[in-house]
Write a structure and sequence with these properties.
The complex is a heterodimer. Chain A is α+β, with helices and mostly antiparallel strands. Chain A contains 17 helices and 28 strands. The radius of gyration of chain A is 29 Å and the shape is globular. The mean pLDDT of chain A is about 90. Chain B is mostly helical. The radius of gyration of chain B is 25 Å and the shape is globular. The relative contact order of chain B is 0.15. The chains are: A alpha+beta, B mainly alpha. At the A-B interface, helix 1, helix 7, strand 12, helix 8 and helix 14 of A face helix 2, helix 4, helix 6, helix 7 and helix 9 of B.
């Protein structure tokens, strides 16, 4: 009897007592914060091995532990990271029938190199080959040289094109990048960093067993040599300018992984990696947190923070609560909540238009959408400014084509089509679409009616579809909206080309190469030009762009490309949403080394082109001020 | 008895085999692909995709894939598509937190449920019983996520207490007691909320079963002997009322490792529910098949244990 009583009343009483004690303990815990930054992420990284990851959560964490040879500075210019310097050059090879002819060509060019204003640094012959070294890669100079040779009656043998359907040229152009590496870099385990690590990383990425998602970036590398421990020479099969950016790829330690089979990496490395970066791995508790601690031997100097903890908080509302109770230090605000946070003096806000835009893709294989007048009319009939106002609460700008304003090659001269339903109606009349008896336009017995697809789980895209349906109804266009689950949408409609129109978005990073999305050869199933866009001028620009190394020329070509595609209106370009993050007012500042040695610049956390979280290693909490005084302070 | 157990075990193996086939096909025939980089990624070339499919045998016909998954499952080499780690170690690393949460929650729901059920039976028909029933049905009816959000928002906004994860972050604990109580807090709070529905339904079972027992002849005999009401209630009626619950205790086995997706997600608690839920979203076929297999095995084992326990506590049950 007593034991029954004990069970019946005792256990609940004990539980209530424990809960009360635990609650009191939790509410009286001292708020003495550690010198630790706490970042909340909705998703958990899949791996911390930078050559095997493809998700942003993994990249965010690994980015603090690794370095590439190159990186972006805060203005998105390419600067050295593990490399102190790099030089681009190119070897252009002309093959002749005889060695005599090659020697003649060499003599000719030796005399003309100044007059031709070519950036030639060396000319030599090897048998019947004439090898010219140029200080700038690209095709223009080589083509000019080839023309000069032909004009003088010298005819190099044709060189077979590298890709199917490519142009046949009279020369072979092989760009070369020389990297000089830093000598003061050590891995987190103390081993020195050398060119062997770079070579290892390249070979690992190309190793099928590694299944690296980055391998396509390095496909055009023909050889990688390491003439010395701090020098790397990469040779390419043909000019491909986006290749330089691929050297932002994080470098892996050869001494740890070189002798281990890739199948073993998940156990021995991927969840506790060793890098060269400002923070070292400490602990990963699955589905809870990853903690990194400072690397006091970092080659740019020890970070100010003792540690950074990435907490996995899968629910957006609890992530917000965690921020409000200072359990995490930053919060990515949804557009609808920005206006309430903006006026709050307790917070610092960082907003910027991103690299992502929303659009409606017209299936250009459907006869209806092949008329550019119709596509233009549809674009003029949709009220995009109103969409920005109501769907993303004004946090974004109207898209003017395939690039977004934050990219350095963006063309600001392209103006968005104005909202003008009258002009749209007139344009449709002109194109032969007359209003029928039911209010819907008809041409040759075809009603102007189509199905617009969007995916479930994305409220913004569903809202876009609804507003487009409403706007187009006003000018006599019938839109049927259908919503499918994301994978179904892709498998059943997009990859088979079985759709009229679809609401989608592209998130694009900072690269200018959009060959995969717009070139007319990229229309096979699973390829990305699923709307079947085909414009020979755009094709040329896309091909030229990825062979161009000159910055000014890239800006010109990219600008022309953006203009050309926007004029064709193959998409209805909608808007570029803005991303906003907040932190508690002045909870962090930045003290980073200035351009001169011994100089330290102290500034608030601020938005840069590379984001507000650029230079994370130099963030500090004011209550743990750095021991090195600032030479310049920006308020 | 022994032949019964053997027959049941053989039957269970056959059942498991059928379950594994069904669960494999449900999982793999669902639209979607397990690519970690999303399906429309301009940076991924077709060669990379093909290489990835080859690495995880996704280029083979489905029946071969099934064979490979089962072979790897039994040899312990089955690897997750998400992070390429052995699936069993991914499941095992969640086990302590999951078992702690579920065990605590089961203890809370059984103890409070029984207590409330006994009271409800004692005051059956009065307003106290009515109020209790109302509250019990309220907790059964209210969706778990709603209650959880209300509690979470109230605690965080009202008291500013940390509630997420398995302990507080970024804080120097003054001593081991504070740190221990902090961990306990992060366990008891989600376990209590998880138990609310259980308390309500458990109290209803006990109440019904008690009321039935209280009508029995032996209770009238006890009353006529002049025993205290408490003794009648707790010693005679309650003991006979918990029998169906003991018989059902085998089902605790799968419940111990079962997940509570909503509560785990809101509390950022690292349990089995999130493992399964995220594996579904990521189309991580090996993890899903392994999880289904383990849970199915535990359900079958739990059923067997329940049958054996009923035979043990109730002499009228014969296992043949």
């Amino acid at each position: 009897m007593r034991s029954i009583r004990l069970f019946l009343y005792g256990i609940p009483a004990a539980l209530i007592l424990l809960l009360a004690m635990a609650f009191l303990n939790a509410s009286f815990l001292s708020v003495a914060k550690k010198n630790e930054m706490s970042v909340g992420t909705l998703g958990e990284p899949s791996t911390l091995n930078p050559i095997q990851q493809a998700d942003s959560a993994s990249a965010q964490v690994a980015g603090l532990m690794f370095n590439g040879l190159l990186k972006y500075n805060q203005d998105l210019d390419v600067v050295g990271d593990l490399a102190t310097a790099w030089q681009l050059s190119q070897e252009t090879t002309f093959q002749f029938g005889t060695g005599e002819e090659a020697a003649k060509a060499r003599y000719l060019l030796d005399n003309k190199r100044v007059a031709g204003n070519w950036p030639i640094t060396n000319i030599q012959t090897e048998g019947s080959n004439l090898i010219i070294t140029l200080s700038q890669p690209g095709l223009t100079d080589s083509e000019n040289i080839a023309n000069t040779l032909t004009e003088s009656g010298l005819h190099p043998l044709p060189s077979p094109p590298l890709d199917k359907g490519g142009k046949e040229r009279s020369f072979k152009a092989e760009p070369i990048i020389h990297f000089n590496l830093r000598k003061d870099v050590r891995w987190h385990d103390g081993a020195p960093f050398t060119s062997a690590d770079v070579a290892f990383t390249y070979h690992a990425i190309m190793d099928e067993r590694v299944a690296s998602p980055s391998s396509s970036d390095f496909e055009l590398v023909s050889s990688l040599e390491t003439p010395g421990p701090y020098s790397v020479v990469v040779r390419y099969k043909k000019p491909f300018s986006p290749a330089l950016l691929s050297w932002m790829q994080s470098i892996l330690p050869a001494h740890l992984l070189g002798k281990v089979e890739p199948a073993k990496w998940p156990e021995i490395y991927n969840r506790h990696p060793v890098g060269t970066g400002p923070f070292k791995f400490e602990r990963w508790k699955t589905n809870e947190f990853i903690r990194l601690v400072k690397n006091p031997d970092y080659f740019r100097g020890s970070p100010w923070l003792d540690s950074i903890v990435f907490r996995v908080l899968p629910d957006p509302l609890t992530l917000q609560l965690a921020f409000q109770t200072k359990q995490v230090d930053f919060w990515a605000v949804e557009p609808w909540a920005v206006s309430s946070v903006e006026k709050d003096p307790r917070f610092d806000l960082f907003s910027s238009a991103g690299g992502m835009y929303n659009y409606i893709g017209w299936n250009l294989q459907r006869p209806m959408f092949q008329d550019v007048r119709l596509r233009k009319a549809l674009a003029e009939a949709v009220n995009v400014p109103q969409m920005i106002k109501y769907i993303i609460y004004g946090r974004g700008v109207q898209s003017t084509g395939i690039f977004t304003p934050k990219m350095w090659f963006f063309n600001p001269k392209v103006r968005p089509l104005p909202y003008d339903p009258k002009a749209a109606a007139a344009l449709l009349d002109e194109a032969g679409w007359k209003v029928g008896s039911d209010g819907i336009r008809v041409k040759n017995g075809t009603r102007l009616s189509f199905t617009l697809l969007a995916n479930n789980g994305n409220e913004i895209r569903k809202d876009i579809a609804t507003l487009v349906q409403d706007d187009l109804k006003k000018i006599g266009v019938e839109v049927k909206v259908e919503i499918y689950e994301w994978s179904v949408l892709l498998k059943r409609f997009v990859s088979k080309g079985e759709f009229d129109a679809i609401v989608l978005g592209w998130g694009l990073g900072n690269g200018f190469d959009q060959y995969g999305i717009w070139h007319s050869s990229q229309t096979h199933p699973e390829e990305l030009n699923f709307i079947h866009y085909n414009n020979p001028k755009a094709d040329h620009l896309l091909t030229d762009l990825r062979q161009e190394y000159n910055r000014a020329e890239i800006i010109r070509l990219a600008g022309d490309l953006q203009q050309t595609i926007y004029a064709d209106q193959p998409y209805l370009f909608l808007f570029v949403p803005e991303g906003t993050s907040v932190m508690w007012k002045s909870s962090y500042r930045i003290r980073r080394p200035g351009p001169k040695s011994g100089e330290w610049i102290d500034s608030p956390v601020r938005m840069t082109k590379a984001g507000w979280d650029y230079d994370m290693e130099w963030f500090y909490r004011p209550e743990y001020a750095p021991n090195i005084p600032a030479t310049t302070t920006i308020r | 008895m022994i032949s019964f157990v053997i027959r049941r075990l053989v039957l269970s193996v056959v059942l498991l085999f059928i379950i594994s086939i069904i669960s494999f096909f449900i999982v793999t025939l669902t639209p979607g692909s397990p690519y970690p980089w999303g399906e429309l990624n301009p940076k991924i070339s077709p060669e990379v995709k093909a290489n990835f499919r080859k690495k995880f045998h996704l280029d083979r016909p489905l029946h071969e894939q099934y064979g490979l998954i089962m072979r790897d499952l039994f040899s312990g080499n089955l690897r997750s598509i998400k992070d390429d780690r052995p699936v069993m170690s991914r499941i095992l690393e969640r086990l302590p937190a999951t078992v702690a949460l579920n065990l605590t929650s089961i203890v809370i729901s059984l103890s409070f449920g029984t207590l409330l059920g006994v009271f409800a039976a004692r005051y059956a028909g009065t307003w106290k019983d009515g109020a209790g029933s109302f509250i019990a049905f309220l907790f059964i009816a209210l969706p778990g996520f709603w209650i959880t959000y209300v509690v979470v928002v109230a605690l965080v906004k009202g008291f500013g207490v940390p509630i997420l994860g398995t302990h507080s972050y970024g804080i120097e604990f003054p001593n081991a007691l504070a740190s221990g109580l902090d961990t306990l807090w992060h366990l008891l709070l989600p376990a209590t909320i998880l138990a609310l529905g259980g308390i309500a339904s458990q109290s209803r079972y006990i109440r019904a079963s008690m009321i039935e027992s209280l009508r029995e002849d032996y209770i009238r005999t006890a009353r006529s002997k002049g025993l205290y009401e408490d003794v009648i209630l707790l010693k005679h009626a309650l003991r006979n009322s918990v029998r169906p619950i003991i018989a059902g205790i085998g089902m605790v086995l799968p419940a111990l490792i079962g997940g509570a997706v909503v509560i785990e997600t809101i509390f950022a608690y690292p349990g089995m529910g999130r493992l399964g839920y995220e594996a579904v979203l990521e189309r991580d076929y090996p993890t899903l098949v392994a999880l289904n297999f383990v849970v199915a095995a535990l359900v079958l084992l739990g059923n067997l244990v329940s049958d054996l326990l009923s035979a043990a506590v109730d002499p009228r049950v014969r296992l043949e």
